Amino acid sequence: MPVLNIAFVGSESLAKKIAKKGDVRDIESYVHKEERNGKIEIISLLRPLKHPEKIRPLLSVLNVAKAGIIEISKIDSALGEICVSFGCAEIKKGLVIINPESGDWIDPEQVKIIMKQSGLSHWELFEQLPDEHSIREKLFSFMENIEDEDSQLILPVDQFFNVKGVGLVAIGYVQSGIVSKHDTIQVLPADENGIVRSLQVMDDDVDYAISGDRVGLAIRNLREEALHRGCMIVHADSNALNKNLSSTFSVVKAPFQKRVLQVGDVIHAATDMQFIVGRVNSIEESNLTVDWEVPLWTRKNNTPRIIITQLDANPMRIIGTTVLQ
To answer: What structural domains and CATH numbers belong to the chain?
Structure first.
């Protein structure tokens, strides 16, 4: 079943109109299934909680999403950071919906300026709240031409536990590639192998899961100690990932960001559901050398942008983006 993951920043009430509420962690999920052209298609809204207090859930959602929705109830610094985050994540398809609080008014022209400055000028703007059917139709149209360019399996783990009668289960979003029953998988950084015993996607037993699926893998022949939040699952001997303990790179500065990084600054890198802390070791011209607290895993093929943040930066924590090969 094709699924489109949508980063949704807006009210719970609007999310419930569009889809049915499911999982709640630091991210809420809302799912809508519909038969279209003889097959079931799924739109999955991922709503980060606790923003602007915490930025990690927002960045995690952006690591997974292929499209976005931003509901604007007021214009403030938090909105600027949200729009910049979507732009830095290169979310190319999305909807901006103006829905002010009762008695308030938001200038659409001001919103258009913010969208242009943050890299979202190609998104569609609704100057008033559309009905949920219209929103769903737009979202389903976004599913066209969204393909996985990387055939290698990349699956970051965000939950794991033992299930009676099933055994060790790891849960996460398939970032790229396909994982199937009986595959031999490798867990990094533990560098231990296991066999996929069974898979579940949205509570259904399946033979395989593809990019975009949130999947539960029952794994045999693997120690529970090999798993932790943020570990990576790949196919055994695929060499799909690079292990980075130290990296040298330049940063493409985010819109509105005036802060200049200095030697000794602590930063975070967000990519493929990782949120890794590092310290700037040296700066030479425009290149930073950063030592990472734990390994930062980057893809060998079709590497996505890495969003660089600094948690004590005000009012904009998004410093910019980089790509590591």
So the answer is: 3-142 (3.40.50.300), 155-235 (2.40.30.10), 241-322 (2.40.30.10)
